[in-house]
């Protein structure tokens, strides 16, 4: 079984990345293969609306999106985390979402499960909006959305590593992963 983790943060060692790793831990412990993409380290270009993919089924842009496309086909579950930028996902993650347009006919994520993580710099700074955007992406691709304790995991942290001082949030990341793994074990017997 394969888990795909997408960290939408442009920062390395980000709070978002830490929470994504904690959410993935139950999968690691269960022996799943985990693939992680840290979008801040990847070369991704925005969709240029050329519609070539509509005719050919392939995107004309030659960048790292092809690795994500391959991972979409192989994965059984997806965790996506994003910092909150102006009450939204990061531009890196939005580019990835838009570039999924190439798959509107093949729909490689249909029937797979997904969990969302959003980290903002303060309380109620758009984290629930951001998890909603991620879950909307999942639903638009035919995926099954899995909640954490309540919804997707939301947290407040600013400086790199701040989230490590919040054991409750780290625990909630684990709960998200456990809930996803529980559903996966029922779906993929």
Give a quick summary of the entry:
Helix content is 39%, strand content 17%. Strands 1, 2, 3, 4, 5 and 6 form a 6-stranded parallel β-sheet that branches. The chain has helices at 15-29, 52-56, 65-74, 91-99, 127-140, 167-187, and strands spanning 2-7, 33-38, 77-83, 113-120, 144-145, 153-156.
The level of helicity is 25-40%
Largest sheet: 6 strands, parallel
Rg (C-alpha, Å)? 16 Å
Residue windows where pLDDT falls under 50 for at least 5 positions = none
> Which strand-content bin applies to the residues?
15-25%
Give the number of domains. Answer: 1
Describe this structure in words.
This protein has 189 residues and is α/β, with parallel strands linked by helices. It has a single domain (2-187), classed as Flavodoxin domain (Rossmann fold, 3-Layer(aba) Sandwich). It has six helices and six strands; from the N terminus they run E-H-E-H-H-E-H-E-H-E-E-H. It has helices at residues 15-29, 52-56, 65-74, 91-99, 127-140, 167-187, and strands at residues 2-7, 33-38, 77-83, 113-120, 144-145, 153-156. Strands 1, 2, 3, 4, 5 and 6 form a six-stranded parallel β-sheet that branches. Helix 1 crosses helix 6. The protein is globular. The chain starts with a strand and ends with a helix. The mean pLDDT is 95.
